[in-house]
Each structure stands twice: as C-alpha cells, then as structure tokens.
Design brief:
about 210 residues; alpha+beta; Nonspecific Lipid-transfer Protein, Chain A; five-stranded mixed beta sheet; 12 helices
C-alpha cells in the first residue's frame, strides 16, 4: 500500500528507506551536504488538495512544525496560501473536517487562489551526511537557506520525481527543476545522487 504525497508518512518513508539501504550507504559514504527542496504551489497542487487523502497528508505534514516555529509563516505568502484555502496558522489541524475543506477547495477559482498565494511553497529539508539521512523535516520561511544544495520547482514537477516518472538529473537538465549549489561536488558524487533519487522514486505513491 502506498502513501500520499506530500504527507508526514511520506517523509517517514523517505527516512526509513534511505537509512536502511546498503547501496546508498556505500555510494554516499563520503557525501557531506544537505538539500532544501522548495516545492512551489501550482494549479496541480490545488487540484490534489481536492482529494481528502492528499489534503489530510499535507495538513499533517504542516502539523509536524512546532508551534513556536509556525510564527515564521506570519505575514508571508505561505500564510496567504493557508488563508486562501480557508485555514489559519492558529487552526487546530486535528479538528479540521478534511472532507468538507476539500469540497470547499474544489469550489474555489484556482486562478484566484494562486494569485492570492503567489510565490508560496512547501519547503522540505533533508540532512544527508556520510550515507545517512540524519533528518527530514518541513522548513519554515528563512530556515535552512544556507543548505549546500537547493532544488526548486513546481509541485507538479516534484510529483514526477517522487513517482519515478522522471529522474532528478533529467528534470534539472531540462530546466523543469532548478538546482543551486556546488555543482562540481555534485558531479563528482553522482552515484550517491542517483541512488538517493532512485530511493525517492521507489516509494509507492497513492493518488486516489
């Protein structure tokens, strides 16, 4: 059985698969560098949020952020996205009627929502060190901006990556994903990069 993306369960599965894979441990034995994945909200994300399972996964992912850190969203485009979806930073996610909210989102004009939340993103930080994924978490605005690498692109393209429809290298070369960081280091450690992205794509994703 698969997990929905994005979700807390997806993050947990990434952590488990990377840290239990001997091939990755060998390929990345000398790897030192974290990734900040900046997943830009797009029309496909809003379409996905009409699915109660995916919406619930997204909300539970946000719920992993400690309350004291959530204030970092205040006044940002990310808060604008929540407001556009009918949510607030102070909402108790456990009390939200996900089915009702998904229905409301399906009735919204996506162009209006996207305009209100222009520039909003879901940032996921992955701390990779000598063959181990030490941590994977949702990053708040301004957090982990000094990551060694940044992978930036729309939700629809990240979905291609995590579902195995396209590999990270192809998506970067084609310009669908933007990669920032020490490219010479990345190129000299391609075996680690390939194995890591293969592990991401190996996680069964539930889409219905």
């Amino acid at each position: 059985m698969g997990v929905v993306y994005p979700s807390k369960e997806w993050m947990e599965e990434v952590y488990k698969r990377v840290n239990s894979n001997e091939q990755y441990k060998k390929a990345a034995a000398n790897w030192e560098g974290d990734f900040l994945c900046v997943v830009e909200m797009d029309e496909e994300a809003l379409k996905d949020f009409q699915n109660p399972k995916i919406l619930k996964g997204f909300l539970e992912m946000l719920d992993t952020i400690p309350k004291e850190k959530r204030e970092k969203f205040r006044g940002t485009v990310n808060e604008g996205l929540l407001i556009a979806l009918g949510l607030s930073l102070d909402a108790d996610i456990s009390t939200i009627d996900v089915d009702e909210l998904a229905k409301k989102i399906s009735e919204m004009d996506p162009k209006v929502v996207l305009e209100a939340a222009k520039g909003a993103s879901l940032n996921v930080w992955m701390d990779l060190w000598h063959g181990e994924l030490r941590n994977v978490e949702v990053a708040v605005p301004g957090e982990h901006e000094d990551a060694r690498f940044k992978l930036i692109g729309p939700h629809s393209v990240f979905k291609q990556l995590v579902t195995g429809k396209a590999d990270a290298i192809t998506l970067v070369v084609s310009g669908k994903l933007r990669l920032q960081g020490d490219m010479s280091y990345l190129m000299s450690n391609m075996a680690a990069v390939r194995r890591f992205t293969e592990l991401l794509a190996s996680i069964p994703i539930e889409t219905s």
